[in-house]
Amino acid sequence: MKIPFNQWVNSMSFMLDDEFDNNFMNSIENLSGLITESANGFNTPEGLTEFLLNNDHGIAPVTRLKSLVSLIGLSEERLKRVVSLVRFRLLNNEFTSEWSIKAISKKFIDDVAFRTLLVNFFVNGRDSEIGVHIPLYYMANFKLTDNDFINNLRDRSYVERILNDNEIQDKYSNRVGSHVESLITNKIDIYIQANNSALRYETQKEFPLLNKNIDIIIPNVENARVLIEASYNITTGSGQSKRADQLSNFYADLMRHNVNHRNAQIKMINYCDGFGWVGRQADLRRIYDSSDYVINQSTLHLLDEILESIFE
User: Fold this and answer.
1) Rounded Cα distance, 232 and 173, in Å
2) Which domain holds residue 232?
3) How far is 57 from 29, CA to CA, in rounded Å?
4) Counted domains in the chain
5) Alpha-carbon distances, residue 101 vs 76, 169, 186 (angstroms)
6) I want to staple 128 with a disulfide (CB 3.0 to 4.6 A). Which of 12, 120, 190, 248 is the partner?
7) Rounded CA separation 231/215 (Å)
């Protein structure tokens, strides 16, 4: 009943859900609206400070800071380097690790001197205490004193495009990962309603046998019969090899368990999708070999048959 490897690979796809995508893109509506309304004040340190410190409209200061650095083309990663320079060269701090964006935002709120340095940098670029230490390339879009740029920021579609391109509210891939789990659980819910009303499942639970948090356990940790792990990859990377290693080790542990507990065997279902996996077929093959069943969005309908064969 396990589908052939080539059939699984050939059924890989992007996650297709227009409702999900529209909700993701529309998640920055409030933020983009606030920016267009506030943009006229961005050209002064006082106006920009007010925008970055406020917590109204349900938009936290850290989100406002993230949006600003995207709008002026700095990026969150470059901001971290800039702040490390400030800490090291201007504030004479000794440290061994850089701050996260959340930590930078907290410091911005709590420390007037730090806040003043950053705001002057954002507004005045090279003509600021920080700016003299920063390459012009980093500040190519520091145009808060340019009326044309401010007019662009008053254009909601312009702001939304930048915020969506930079995934300000969340990484699209992170949201897709969570959504994939909901696709699986929704399918399980439909199966339970139609075929086995007594069946239950748990999500994101620590499973002691594998010493691992498992995406979906059916019916529960204490009496596990099915483990489902889900992975969606748009891009390729070494993390996929680590994922394959991990799942191979888990499956070996499950096989040892099943040999010694023939009346309480546990099946492994792996959901892998996204064209990032098509580009890592050696890793995908190892995951296939470490699974009792494999599925993805295109073959999710097979889950009914799989569950029926296990819980008949």
Assistant:
1) 8
2) 5-16+172-311
3) 11
4) 2
5) 7, 13, 35
6) 120
7) 10
